[in-house]
């Protein structure tokens, strides 16, 4: 995948989401997402990248430990992470 604009379009299409829905999930503005998808803006801020990934509950296995916030700490080395929203039994 080349950029986050393409990523946004794919997520929205696969999830049946509007830009407003994606904005609510990620905390990014709808107008920003529109510009991102059209290529007018690029997502270069690490904070905004983390907002997007956290808002979409992207698993740590796909992002790596560098892109985690304190709300989603990385598990100790060697332990698998739990799916978000699913506490252990």
TrEMBL record:
Every HTH cro/C1-type domain range: 16-62
Superkingdom classification of source: Bacteria
Gene3D superfamilies per the UniProt record, alphabetical: lambda repressor-like DNA-binding domains
Region feature Disordered, mapped onto this chain: 64-89
SMART domains in the record: HTH_XRE (SM00530)
One term of GO molecular function: DNA binding
SUPFAM superfamilies the UniProt entry points to: lambda repressor-like DNA-binding domains
Pfam families named in the record: HTH_3 (PF01381)
Protein name from the UniProt record: HTH cro/C1-type domain-containing protein
Organism in which the protein naturally occurs: Streptomyces dysideae
């Amino acid at each position: 995948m080349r950029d986050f604009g393409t990523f946004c379009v794919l997520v929205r299409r696969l999830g049946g989401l509007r830009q407003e829905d994606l904005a609510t999930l990620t905390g990014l503005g709808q107008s920003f997402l529109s510009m991102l998808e059209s290529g007018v803006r690029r997502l270069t801020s690490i904070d905004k990248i983390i907002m997007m990934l956290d808002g979409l509950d992207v698993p740590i296995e796909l992002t790596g430990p560098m892109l985690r916030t304190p709300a989603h700490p990385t598990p100790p080395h060697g332990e698998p992470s739990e799916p978000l929203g699913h506490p252990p039994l």
